[in-house]
Design brief:
single chain; 223 residues; globular
Length: 223
């Protein structure tokens, strides 16, 4: 019919893309998730140590002691894990030998102070457990050095806030003189036990925690 128009445009059915992600997006998402898990699991032993130190510091701050249910399993599982993952390894940084060397360094750092009554047994065992998991005697020793500085700063602040700075300073000279003159560790321990009720005690699990985690961050093994 004249004047009648016919629309001959061919209309193809629209492609249904609902619910379908572009392949590139899928790939990028998968890679991102794998990177996140890889970053989380990298140096997981150090992260586990950091979490354990935080728990120990919190308990030490409340109760002035680090319980055995933290320290003994920490040391034992550290030895077992590194024995399983690295065999005998070497004394520097791997395996059973590395874990044992790290634990020995942790004990050596605080055991002499504990022997003369200047440190709680829980703090000594906490350092030993940390060394067992780090399986590296050098890292354990360096983390301890940082914790010493943190502990010194905390002790000064605590004494200053107590308002008895001169009294505590005098006690420090007395203790230093005892260490230089009294040769019997048991006698030093007895003297320290008698003086303990009058002292302003520092829960040393807190400096160990702060100093060690700060060192791990500096070392780049925690993040």
């Amino acid at each position: 019919m004249v004047g009648q128009c016919f629309d001959r445009t061919v209309r193809l059915p629209a492609e249904d893309r609902s619910g379908v992600e572009p392949p590139l997006t899928d790939l990028l998402t998968k890679v991102a998730l794998e990177m996140e898990w890889h970053a989380l699991l990298e140096n997981w032993e150090v992260k586990l140590v950091a979490l354990t130190l935080i728990l120990a510091a919190w308990i030490d701050g409340k109760e002035l002691k680090v319980p055995n249910w933290i320290t003994y399993p920490m040391a034992l599982t550290g030895l077992l894990w590194h024995s399983y993952s690295g065999g005998m390894g070497n004394w520097a940084d791997s395996g059973f030998q590395g874990s044992l060397a790290g634990m020995g360094m942790g004990l050596a750092c605080l055991l002499p102070i504990y022997a003369v009554g200047g440190m709680g047994a829980g703090d000594v065992k906490l350092m030993a457990g940390m060394g067992a998991w780090l399986a590296n005697w050098q890292t354990t020793g360096e983390a301890f050095v940082v914790s010493v500085f943190v502990g010194a700063v905390m002790a000064i602040v605590m004494v200053w806030r107590s308002g008895k700075f001169h009294e505590h300073l005098a006690n420090s000279f007395v203790i230093a003189n005892e260490w230089l003159t009294v040769r019997n560790p048991r006698e030093l321990s007895r003297i320290a036990a008698e003086r303990k009720p009058t002292m302003h005690l520092l829960p040393y699990g807190i400096p160990i925690c702060i100093g060690s985690i700060a060192y791990f961050l500096y070392q780049g093994t925690l993040l």
